[in-house]
Structures are given as C-alpha cells and as structure tokens.
Specification:
90 residues, mainly alpha, 2 domains, rod-shaped
C-alpha cells in the first residue's frame, strides 16, 4: 500500500460529524486526486547512468571523438558532449 493509499484510507475513516470536518476531508481527497503519479513525473522510464568522467576526459585528451567515447561508456554522444563541455573539456 502506498503512502497516498494509506492517507486516503485514513481520511475516509474520519468521523465527519461536523461540516468543517467534512470540508477538510473533501479538500484532502481532492488534493490526493491531483497528486502526480511517479510515472508522470519522469520524462523517460530509463535510469540515469553514471559516467566515468575521468575516463571520458582522458579519452578526449587522447584524441578520441565524442562518438567513440560515448560508445565506450555506453551513453549517447550528446550526453558525452554535454558533460565534457560542462567540465571545460573540448
């Protein structure tokens, strides 16, 4: 059972004898209905791979192309370009 399901169960079990309690219950349930699901918050279902920046830098300084480094590390060429540019390696 997820945390949201637990909260929903507890809220539904609330004694709503007063108008205020019923309003609070309805507000919480409305918020739970609008809570984004984890699958909706991620752009892709892929896990991020860690990049061995030391190896990437060394390969680039040895004259390797971005494509060759990307193939060696198992990531996209664009990822290598981005990380090496951010690290100041041309």
């Amino acid at each position: 059972m997820t945390n949201i399901e637990i909260v929903r169960t507890l809220i539904n079990a609330m004694d709503t004898s007063s108008v205020q309690d019923e309003a609070i219950k309805q507000a919480v349930l409305a918020l739970l209905d609008h809570e984004p699901k984890k699958a909706e918050t991620k752009k892709t279902g892929r896990k991020k791979k860690s990049i061995d920046m030391g190896k990437a830098k060394a390969c680039r300084q040895a004259g390797w192309s971005f494509a060759k480094i990307a193939d060696e590390l198992g990531v996209s060429e664009m990822t290598i370009r981005k990380h090496l540019n951010e690290a100041g390696v041309e």
